[in-house]
Amino acid sequence: MPVQPNKAVVGKNAFAHESGIHQDGVLKERTTYEIMNPEMVGIAASNLVLGKHSGRHAFRDRLSELGYELSDEELNLAFARFKALADKKKEIADQDIQAIVEDEIRHIPETYLLEYLHISSGSTVVPTATLGLRKGEELKEEAACGDGPVDAIYKTVDKITGLQCVLVNYAINAITGGKDALGDVTVKLKCQENEKIYIGRGVSTDILEASAKAYVNAVNKLIFDHQPKN
Question: Which CATH number is 113-226 given?
C-alpha cells in the first residue's frame, strides 16, 4: 500500500519558501516551484519564510500584507535594516518587520499613554478594569466589565478613545525565565471601518499591564494612520 504523505512535513517543506529566488518565483507564478495547490494537502496557503536569503520582492510583499506602503527611500532603508537583522535571526516574524518600520523608519507619536491600571477579578466577581490614559495634559479615566480581565481592559480603552476595535490576535511570550519573567504581549487589531491590521506590543512583569500597553500601542498606530497627512 502506498505511503500517505505527512501533511505537516509536506506543509513545512514543500510550501515554506525561504530562498530569495524561490520566493520571487512563487510571487510571480506559484506553479514555478509548487507542483500542487497547498489546499490539496490541507495547507491554507504557501508560506514565505523571511530570512537572510529573502529578496526585496518578498519583503515588499510581506510589507503590503501587513498594510505598509513605503516610499522607495523608506523601502531601501527598511530592507537594509531587515537584512542586518536577518544576519542575527534565522527567521523574521511579522512583529520584527513591524518594529523595523514603525520604531526605526517611522516614528509613531503616542497619542495615549497608560497612566494607571486597576483590575477587579476572581471566580465569583465580574472582571472589571479601571484605566487612566493620558492624552497630552488631560487624564482620561473610565471603567468597564468584560468576559475576563484582558477583555475588560480592552473595552475600557475603547470607551476612553471612542474607537470600536476588533481584536484579531492576542499572544503572550516570556522574554526571561523565572517567576519574575518579563511578559511580552503582542496584539493585532483592526478598526471596524477597514480591514487594515495594526500590531501592538507591550512588555511588563505584570501580564495585564503588558496587555494594556500592547493594546494602547496598537490604538496609537491606528489613530496616527487615520490622521490627515500634510
Answer: 3.30.160.270
